[in-house]
Amino acid sequence: MIQVFENCYQLRGRLVHHYALFPKSPDEGGIVLIDGGFLSSTPDRWLPEFAKLGYRPEQVEAILVTHGHIDHTLNLARWKDLTGARLFAPSADRIHIEGRYPYTGINRICGCLEASARLLFSFEAPEIDEWFEPGQRLPFWDGLEVIGLPGHTLGHSGFYSPSRKLLLAGDLFSSFRGKAKIPPPFFNDDTEQIKQSIATAAALDLSGGVLHNHCHPGTREEYRRELETLVTQL
Predict the structure, then answer these.
(1) 3-class secondary structure for 185-221?
(2) Residues of 145-181 as b/e, b for ≥16 C-beta within 10 angstroms?
(3) Among 119, 121, 122, 211, which residue's beta carbon has the most beta carbons within 10 A?
(4) Do 9 and 20 form a contact (C-beta atoms < 8 A)?
């Protein structure tokens, strides 16, 4: 668990990482997660770490889902069972989460991987409490704006904190060893649409930085610079 911003921690796992947003103190509110983690990044791993900071399981109040791929949704049902957290997800990704997305073309590779993982890990589709839309403001962490960043999936979303000038960008891009890339085409619903989403993200005031889910251990400033480099490349 790496602190990457005041009251914000990167929960590192295998292949994909997610984030925990904390209030100023345990007496001033609950924890909000961005995505649910995958494989080793489970609630059984992280709840003891939260306890060290003074938080009880029931203080995980909400989980905001960036998109419906299983590496972001695998643990949602267990998080909900253990904490009672409310789940929020993009309405356009409902069919992804429910396993009904009609994969076509090269994207069928992603569909096969998703189906195999659902079977292998006995995936339980979580009950979503609220489906959100781009432009909506969610009442967490002093207010988070839903930024529509489609392409990876049609409902793929980021969460922007206006007070911190910080974007939680999901799978908009990946960066390892300082090199930023958009997701491989076979993982995307519409790869061309990602280029516009990259421009949408870059147009925000990102003076507080960027955080995303497939990345090397770095800082929000490094990730922002990698996004800026990607904009010029595209």
Answers:
(1) HHHCCCHHHHHHHHHHHHCCCCCCEEECCEECCCCHH
(2) bbbbbbbbbbbbbbbbbeebebbbbbbbbbbeeeebe
(3) 211
(4) yes
CA distance 37 to 87: 14
What is the number of H-type helices and E-type strands within the chain?
7, 15
Using CA atoms, how far residue 127 sits from 43, 66, 87, 163, 185, in Å, is 17, 16, 7, 31, 29
> Residue 65's closest CA among 150, 149, 156?
156
What does the alpha-carbon distance between residue 183 and residue 201 come to, in Å, rounded to a whole number?
16
**Could you give the 3-state DSSP secondary structure of residue 175?**
strand
Identify the domain containing residue 121 by its residue range: 2-233
CATH classification of the domain holding 84: 3.60.15.10
Sheet containing 8-11, strands listed edge to edge, beginning at the edge strand earlier in sequence: 2-5, 8-11, 18-21, 31-34, 60-64, 86-90, 130-132
From first to last of its 234 residues, the chain has per-residue pLDDT tens of 999 999 999 999 988 999 999 998 888 889 999 999 998 899 999 999 999 999 999 999 999 999 999 999 999 999 999 999 999 999 999 999 999 999 999 999 999 999 999 999 999 889 999 999 999 999 999 999 999 999 999 999 999 999 999 999 999 999 987 789 999 999 999 999 999 999 999 999 999 999 999 999 999 999 999 999 999 887
Total domain count for the chain? Answer: 1
